[in-house]
Amino acid sequence: MRLTQLPTHPEPHKQAVLLSFFARLFVALVMLFFLALTQWLEWGGMMLHLNWIHLFGLYGGLVALSFTSIALKTTSAWRVLIIFSLDAFLWFFILKGTGGAMNPANSYYLVLLCLSSLVLPLGFTFFIFVLVIFFYTLLMLTDPHTLHSMMGWHLWGMWVSFFITAILLSVSIHYLSSRIKKQDETLASFKAQTTRDEQLILMGTIAANTAHELGTPLATIAMLTDGLDAENASIIQQQIDRCKKSLEQLKMLPNQSGKVTLSSETFLTQLENDLLLIKPGCQLAFQDEFNRPLSFQLSLKQALMALAVNAIDACQSVVNIHLYQKAGELIFDIIHDGSPPKHTLGAIGNSTKDHGLGIGYFLANASIEQQGGTVEWIDLPNQVITQVAIPLEQI
Length: 395
Known about the structure:
This protein is of the alpha+beta class.
């Protein structure tokens, strides 16, 4: 489970329905205006036989479909498909009674096809394509003008032009829409990565300054231990040595950007020693089923330590660390019987601990992702598994 989340975008299906709402009503009003004007001026004998009751009934269906579609709170691809299909069906009967294939308003079918190609899957777009071609062909077959030679050739030429235009629009718009969506996802991922890198740089700067500032206090504390009794002085000296060791590792970090190769057994032994130094008295159990050399960056080991320390803090008994191979990946399972982390962990400022900042999880996840791996938390009835998966080609 990667913790970097892409920003959400407005629902494209709802936008397509809204655009079809305005286009549908606009074309319907324009066509109604010209029909009324033609009827009033008595242009063409055919227009004198319009069934206005039938026509207004169909227009009422269009209006009802329009306002019902925009009233939906959520609009899925299936709902858009149903709305567009009903739209094409109603337009067929309106066109059939108002000039058929000769009515220029049949080009509204191309609007439906464009919107379908923009937001619907390819299969749904193909269905709308077949539907509009079917209705347009029915208009051609039921039009008496197609029986006359010259007019018939003209109308069938318009049909061929409509067919070719529909194919070109469907393919080109769907292709461009897919490319734009991929570019948006890539850009959003890049922005998220850039934000995280800026946070890492900031924390690295703070860590370097902290390492420089801690040197003098540690030296002062080391001198003050001379006046204490042997037992307390020994304990304090151990903690000072631990701090110095950590600071030395921090200073050496820029020079250790390359990989270190160790056997899996040695790697787990070093991990155990480091964890016991940080958490004296903790109960650890290791299981190595990999039994091969590991080539890793120092950041991977630090990330695993951060995850293991959080598991130790959360567990009530023993923390089990299991190393094995699965489906081309190296798996680290950190198993404990405590509480799972919150789903918001991995962002700075979110932690399950009372005084935690969430920095450990954030840095661990960032380090593992930079090596092509993932971090996932599996919450089982009696245990929690922090699973780290690294591709074998990275090891």
